[in-house]
Specification:
The protein has 17 helices and 14 strands. It has helices spanning about 15, 20-30, 45-55, 65, 70, 80-90, 95-115, 125-130, 135-145, 150-165, 170-200, 205-210, 220-250, 255-260, 265-275, 310, 355-375; strands spanning about 30-35, 40-45, 60, 125, 210-215, 215, 280-285, 290-295, 295-300, 305, 375-380, 385-390, 395, 400-405. Strand 1 and strand 2 (about 40-45) form a beta hairpin. Helix 7 (about 95-115) runs parallel beside helix 17. The relative contact order is 0.17.
Length: about 425
């Protein structure tokens, strides 16, 4: 007789150390499980998570308490219907196609180069502290046309706002720090918004200040909330993805060598990193009506926690789900950054990450420049650095030994 394993506690230290065995137990034995710690229904199978992202009965009203207080107002992820479509259309062009290629690619390349310059001649560095946590936030700050001299302040605000969003255990100090950071950021932005309204430039903040939504302009609070969202949504995620990508490749030297030799494999390496170690491990939803899924029923208004980290390792969907394999046949790099993706790291459906192609461009530029600057790289501490975090997850540090090359200047896009 087999005994049923205990349902995992997603707020426990064991889960934080390595959630993947717990995800397997959930998928196998508790595909729909009411978690008392978070008072939410956990769903863990690919099919159920994909459905929750696509089926409009699963609203994102949960962001009223999860996002709104930190950003100081309603933002894109919590909107629906026409309001959502119009607001999304406002920023989407900056994150894809010509605008991304022609206007923002140079910004991305310059920021990658500047970060690498801070350790180009070093024998060793921490790629998380020196590169990953800085580069994506700096890119957003520059896209918005904000003061580059304030990169450090933005980094501090963004870290506190992200702390608020990831505060599953509801720690009051973390919550206060997030709310304070949101207020400080808004106070910083308000005079800049007045300037841009009076004299718009070619930057993303000017677009937000001047664009008309449903015949009316976004008010100051709409804009400060939106900027706060962009810093958190675009910074934290890409930060963790970049660090995890390098850690995964360094842990698989044959795959690193393949990517180094054939840079067209970078999107596949990024897509596989998003599947294998997704930066956003879970996203919540709130069904508007009673729904049946995972073999059970969720009442209207309850919170559903969609376990992205589990869905992406579902053995019903992927062969050898626990292996990192850049060349796997069941993940399609060509669609991995669109709403037709066959992983759920960017969600799916109407809230599919609007910054996915920006993230892909940032990762391509960063990986190319880092590989060009350093012909050899290895873990400095001899062990593979682990991931940390429950809501968002990635390596906390990534100390690497570097062999600087003399071809750094020919870096792609340099
Ligand atoms: C690897 C990097 C990234 C990952 C893993 C990621 C993940 C996600 C996920 C899971 C969602 C869905 C949230 C939900 O449905 O509740 C989302 C939405 C969003 N992301 Fe990203 N993201 C990344 C990069 C970016 C970047 C670079 C930006 C832009 C600065 C960005 C901006 C947004 C915005 C504005 C939304 C809300 C879209 C909507 O509600 O329509 N993200 N992202």
């Amino acid at each position: 007789m087999t005994t049923l394993p205990q349902p995992p506690d997603i707020l426990s230290p064991e889960f934080a150390a390595d959630p993947y065995p717990a995800y397997r137990i959930l998928r196998e034995h508790y595909p729909l499980f009411h978690d008392p710690g978070t008072d939410s229904f956990l769903i863990s199978r690919y099919e159920d998570v994909a459905r929750a992202f696509r089926d409009p009965v699963f609203t994102s009203d949960n962001y009223e308490w999860q996002l709104e207080p930190a950003h100081g107002g309603r933002t894109l992820p919590q909107m629906s219907g026409r309001e959502h479509a119009v607001r999304r259309a406002l920023v989407a062009p900056a994150f894809r196609g010509r605008e991304l290629r022609e206007k923002f690619l140079p910004v991305i390349e310059r920021n990658a180069r500047e970060r690498i310059d801070t350790f180009r001649d070093a024998a060793e560095t921490d790629l998380v502290a020196r590169f990953a946590t800085r580069f994506p936030v700096n890119v957003i700050v520059d896209m918005l046309g904000l003061d580059r001299a304030d990169h450090d302040r933005f980094h501090g605000w963004y870290a506190s706002v992200v702390g608020f969003l990831s505060n599953l255990a509801q720690d009051p100090e973390i919550a206060d720090a997030g709310l304070r950071a949101g207020r400080e950021l808004a106070a910083y932005l308000l005079p800049v918004i007045q300037e841009r309204r009076a004299a718009p430039g070619d930057d993303l903040l000017s677009t937000l200040c001047t664009a008309e939504v449903e015949g009316t302009r976004m008010n100051d609070q709409d804009i400060t909330s939106f900027v706060s969202l962009l810093l958190a949504a675009g910074g934290e995620t890409t930060d963790k993805a970049l660090a995890a990508l390098f850690r995964n490749l360094l842990a698989h030297p044959d795959q690193l060598a393949a990517v180094r030799a054939d840079r067209s494999l970078i999107p596949a390496a990024f897509a596989e990193t998003l599947r294998y170690t997704p930066p956003v491990q879970m996203i919540m939803r709130q069904p508007a009506a009673e729904v049946t899924l995972g073999g059970g029923t969720v009442p209207a208004g309850a919170t559903v926690t969609c376990l992205i980290g589990s869905a992406n390792r579902d053995e019903r969907h992927y062969a050898r789900p626990d292996s990192f394999d850049v060349l796997r046949g069941d993940l399609t790099p060509a669609t991995a950054f669109s709403a037709a993706a066959d992983h759920v790291a960017f969600a799916l459906g109407r809230h599919f990450c609007v910054g996915a192609l920006l993230a892909k461009t940032e990762v391509e530029v960063a990986v190319n420049q880092l590989l060009d600057a350093f012909p050899a790289m290895d873990f400095a501490e001899g062990t593979v650095p682990a991931d940390a975090g429950v809501f968002t997850r990635g390596p906390e540090r990534l100390r690497v030994r570097l062999v600087p090359g003399n071809d750094g200047a020919r870096a792609h896009g340099a």
